[in-house]
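Notes from the 1:1 (GR / supervisor)

We went over the backlog. Supervisor wanted to see one worked example end to end before approving the batch request, so GR pasted a single chain during the call. The sequence is below; no edits were made to it. Supervisor asked that the structure be written out right there so they could see what the output format looks like.
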Amino acid sequence: MLSARSVFREILDDDESFRLFCSIAASGEAQGGWENGRIAALVPETERALAPKIARHGADEDKHGRIFHALLKKRGLQPVDVPHETDYTMLLEKHGIGLAHSRLKADEPLTVRDIVTYLAHSKVTEQRASEQMRLLLRYFADDPDIGRAVRMISGDEDNHLAYCHEELLRFARAGHGRDIQRTLRECAHAEIRIHRDVSLAVMERMGRILGWAPAKRQLLAAGIHAAHGYERAGGWRRMVSLRPPRRRDALGGPATSATEFA
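Structure output shown during the call:
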């Protein structure tokens, strides 16, 4: 029977597909770590209190990258180059989601509007990350090979999402509500399209590695298109909704260590 659990199991059990999976994940986390680190360094003076939380966000992303590299090392594998069409974070940046790298490489302080834009974009992408990690958590929380990593990363992604809710609501109360909602909607519509394209590209690569039959590939592609259809029809609204999080000040402390995965 074809299920999300069985597909993930196939990918995780084969060295080559596992290597691609971890390489894609590690690359995206490393880019997120760099972006958050630069944003923390360029926060405007009026929002300096936010800088430690942004830095913590970046430290978490760096940690996740190290965890995926450690999982590869544990199986005696080296990372591979990430194919362009599967590079979710790079494609997001290319389509204007997140602050432009040229902006982050400069030494000019960001504006408050830049920070609002960053948080709105983060909310959408962290919504996706939190949901994907919860799916893995449901299937593999007790897995002897990846269970600890899944539990740690899932908890971090939930913290990141809570932080985005909390800070965006604070900015909305300060008068930025219209900009926040407009940016969230624009980002969500772009993200669901990019997520579909990346999912199809990853599925095609995995299918080649694992020798999936054409019928299986077609069925999986149909599922990806169906999920995108749901999101385009109205599922995107979950990505733009804001509510007070259960976890308050979720990024108020230091990042946890990844030394147990070294």
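Supervisor's comment: The two ends are 36 Å apart (CA to CA).
Batch request approved.
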